[in-house]
Amino acid sequence: MLAEPEQTIPSIAHATDAGAERIAIIKEVLDEIRPNLKRDGGDCEFLCIDGNKIVVRMTGACVFCKLASMTIEGIQAKIVERLGVLMRVVPAPPGYKAPH
Predict the structure, then answer these.
(1) CATH number for 52
(2) Number of structural domains, the chain?
(3) pLDDT digits (tens, 9 = 90+) for 22-77
(4) pLDDT at position 12, please?
(5) I need a surface site. Which of 17, 21, 76, 97 has the fewest CB within 10 A?
(6) Half-sphere exposure of 8 (CA within 13 A, CB side)
(7) Residue 40 DSSP code
(8) Where is the NIF system FeS cluster assembly NifU C-terminal domain (predicted)?
(9) Is residue 52 part of a domain?
């Protein structure tokens, strides 16, 4: 089952064109890997971009998986490849609220 975001993600309408394009690419990458995560009972939600940092929330089986850090590294590699810009993908700490 797909987890629902707990808070509102910053609106793409308020982002710059470049920012909106980055968000779209990030979401595309997550959508591409999502079937593999779901097959193992997990998922990954995009929360926000903070400078060169992409904050995601690992859910389901991914929360306690020993390979979650490798999954995040793989997501990061795909995003960097697509964007052509160095970005860090980091998991949100428990209770994290994305800035609005």
Answers:
(1) 3.30.300.130
(2) 1
(3) 999 999 999 999 999 999 999 999 999 988 999 999 999 999 999 999 999 999 99
(4) 41
(5) 17
(6) 4
(7) T
(8) 26-89
(9) yes
